[in-house]
Write a structure and sequence with these properties.
8 helices, 7-stranded mixed β-sheet, alpha/beta
Amino acid sequence: MKLLHALREHLAMVTGLGLLALLCLSWFPLAMVLYRVLPRRWGQPLGRRVATFTFRFYLSALERLCGCRFDLSALEQLPREGPMIIVANHPSLLDAVLLISRLPDAVCIMKAGLMDNPMFGAAARLARYIRNDNLLNVVLRCRRVLNEGGQVVLFPEGTRTTRWPVNPLLPSIGLLAQRTRATVQTVLIEFSSPYLGKQWPLWRRPSLPLVVRVRLGRRFEPPDDACGFNQALQQHFDDELRAGPHTAA
């Protein structure tokens, strides 16, 4: 039985990672062409809707084929609540997939390396995701997204969590919230195991069933004090995630 269970976990890993790669690479050539030929007013919403549809399909496939369980119901209300900055902890490589699958007007702030990655870059550029190259550019792009009614998604740790329950947050997060004058909604992502976390090798099989729960945390008004906001945000994530399941490696 143990051998069969281990085999199932290996098959789930290969199926899950392979399907994600297949979906992303299948969309890549068309997204690259559409980015060049479509005006922004058409290409941007198309890119975002395709991302949401693709990731929703992918998570559904993981539930049916790989024994995963995703509770993302808390996110369903956010698209109706208008422009805001959505900040989430970052325990796994799947985090952006989880959020985008339920947020059709979401715009991610992405590392420059990911924007240039063949698997994700063309689709990210078509959807007009934001390259995290310098703070001024990020602030100006975020203002535009928010003024157009979109929602900005970012991971304030800057990388996947290495120190439970959450890494020290980047100081630029408070400045971004202050300069954009945007409401900030916190999102708490909890995994039953640290699968695809920073210390989890890509080809290490998951422990099934993998259970993922996403819940809403505190909503912050636009801050006047960037430093004080960062401290309050850090404290909130620390307190809320310590109260949830411990998924350290």
